[in-house]
Design a protein that fits this description.
This protein is of the alpha/beta class. Helix content is 42%, strand content 20%.
């Protein structure tokens, strides 16, 4: 799964990318021309606890690909606009992450010479809406020309779906707010419509604006009108310093500043939620691993994530929830308590389940 960090130049987007990826801030230039990608480990305190218990030879976190897409800049005419190159980079991601700035820094000017994070969110939303509207309008025209010339039933089924989307976007509403069934989503899946992608918003504050966090989050919520969009405040400079500390110093630093969860954790967990993902675990002396799956995955689907043969030759899944395992302390005691169970192929795997796949 891929998330794309998008935003205006000097929003703190690349600093956020460096925090997530653990890269040195000097390794990237602020004027990068192409997207930079890193595979980022998703922190999981549950996996850490299981590692303490099993002491395996190897521990493998779930991962997610993060793309740092070059920030939007003003052109020679002094106007800020989304380019085709930017769109091509952004379209390839499964979810988008708007990074906007509230921090003030005279040495790093905002491309529009303003500090207005909600206005920046609105700019990105409007540009993506226009992009989707233009595509949908062109697609409708093409379908109406092609349908009379062909017997392809797929095109006839596609037209009402595209028209439904066009009518929605024409009202300046993003497609992620439009009720679509699985068949309709399948029709749209190849078109990479920008406002159909799950969205997370990160507002980059400076240390002097802590008292304004709630105010700006409420304004952003009012603009987006979508409870599924996570809006996360973060302090780029502070978080960058935090990411470079040892684990012990980091815990002390976070305690001193009243930080309960790092930006790395908040942002990656929000991305997981936006993408409809969660994790299950496999454990043992050789390896503890967190596996990423869609929330509706069955036990057989989840077995296939581990290995294709596990899917094809699936018999049963031994299952215990993470909370039950921690409560009872061992598989034997979980069996005694009746919380260890055998599940068939149609069992829907829950977040934090510990699985052992039985296969032929």
């Amino acid at each position: 799964m891929q998330i794309g960090l998008v935003g205006l130049q000097y929003s703190g987007k690349t600093t956020l990318f460096n925090i997530l990826s653990g890269k040195d801030e000097t390794s990237q230039t602020m004027n990068q021309e192409k997207a930079t990608v890193e595979v980022v480990k998703v922190p999981d305190a549950r996996l850490d606890e299981l590692t303490k218990i099993f002491n395996p030879k190897k521990t493998v976190n779930a991962t997610i690909e993060v793309y740092d897409i070059p920030g939007l800049r003003t052109g020679d005419d002094g106007k800020l606009r989304i380019t085709n190159a930017f769109l091509n980079e952004a379209k390839n991601n499964d979810a988008l992450f708007y990074v906007v700035r509230q921090f003030k820094e005279e040495s790093v000017l905002h491309p529009m010479n303003r500090i207005d994070p909600v206005g920046d969110i609105e700019f990105l939303e409007t540009e993506f809406l226009f992009n989707d509207l233009a595509f949908l309008e062109n697609r409708i025209e093409k379908l109406k020309k092609d349908i009379p010339k062909t017997k392809d039933e797929k095109l006839k089924k596609e037209l009402p779906v595209i028209e439904k989307c066009f009518a929605h976007v024409e009202q300046e509403k993003p497609l992620r707010n439009l009720a679509l069934n699985e068949a309709e989503r399948k029709i749209l899946s190849g078109y990479q419509l920008m406002t159909l992608k799950p969205l997370v918003v990160a507002i980059n504050f400076d240390d002097e604006s802590i008292d304004k966090v709630d105010e700006y989050i409420e304004k952003a919520k009012e603009l987006l009108k979508d409870e599924n969009v996570k809006i996360i405040p973060f302090f780029a400079k502070l978080e960058y310093e935090l990411s470079k500390l040892s684990e012990e110093d980091r815990e002390m630093f976070m305690e001193d500043y009243g930080i309960k969860e790092s930006a790395l954790s908040k942002i990656l967990h929000a991305s997981y939620q936006a993408l409809g993902l969660h994790s299950f675990f496999t454990v043992g002396e050789d390896e503890n691993r967190a596996w990423t799956i869609k929330k509706n995955y069955t036990a057989q689907d989840s077995a296939g994530v581990i290995h294709t043969d596990f899917y094809n030759k699936f018999i049963r899944a031994e299952v215990v929830s993470y909370d039950d395992f921690i409560k009872h302390g061992s598989f034997a005691k979980c069996k005694e308590a009746g919380v260890w169970r055998l599940e068939g192929k149609d069992y829907i795997v829950q977040d934090g389940d510990i699985l052992n796949i039985r296969h032929s």
